[in-house]
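Dear colleagues,

As part of the handover before I leave the project, I'm documenting each prediction I ran so the next person doesn't have to rerun anything. This entry is a single chain, and its sequence is reproduced below.
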Amino acid sequence: MKTITLGKTGIEVTELCFGALPMGPLQKSLTVEEGGECIAHALELGVTMVDTAQMYGTYPMVKYAIDKTGKKPVVSTKSTAATYEDMEAAVNEALEKMGLAHIDVMLLHAARVDENLFELRAGAWQCMKDYKEKGLIKAIGVATHSVRTVKRAAVMDDVDVVFPLINKIGRGIIHGTHAEMEQAIELCFENSKGVYFMKVFAGGYLLKQYDEAIQYCSDLSKGRAPLVMGMVAKDEVDMNISYLAGKNVESQIKTLKESPEKHFIVVQGLCSACGKCIEVCHSAAISMGEKASIKKDKCVTCGYCVGTCPEFAIRMI
């Protein structure tokens, strides 16, 4: 696999980054062993970067893979913490639960927040800078779906890395257009920020356009940004590695195109219409009548709504 250096951080990673979101309780709810074996398989095959987050519930899986293989990947994680104290707890949780001596990349987890993010979470941002100074974090930045936030981060001296949402159809982008997000990402590259791409398949929506979706992001990257792909099975790892290595995966792509589309639904009999799912949905994909309902054409299947629903009424089918 090709390797990429993240901006000026000196952190070198493979073009393929293992996305740990879908294997956790927000989506597939794999066991620690199941998820850990999948990550371990990727590490053994040469993948050197794993993306996770405090809210994903996948830290034990990452630790399992590290312990099993003896291979330490570049770990990127993120937290929605807003205060200094909460971010400090988040950093220490990540270090402890993954058995790390340091965190390679720590991000403000802020899908919906606009360019005022760094003021709204000033305490958390200061904590990240302090821990970077201590050597417990190597690089800091932001994970976002917002065009305006990407533009702001691109010109901030203390931002090392930016993790923007981008895909072939622009699904999930907020605070701007698809073209404007492309321009904002290019500004990050021009200012030597480390960049890696989120939602390459638009949360699974583009899996039936697998090769086109990857090619779009590869063309935009021009070898400058890793592609984060959520994976839950070893054959998915094999396919993604093979594709990026230029090998023939036509049979696997054909199977993908013939497989039923996965999506979230609200079990109406369980929904209490509390509205908590709407509060956490960063894609405006949930509406409320007598009960909540999910608009498939806007959902990026992140699963954040699943984690917040007190009735466990939201399911992937």
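The longest helix spans residues 84-98. The chain has two domains: 3-257, 264-316.

All the best with the project,
I.
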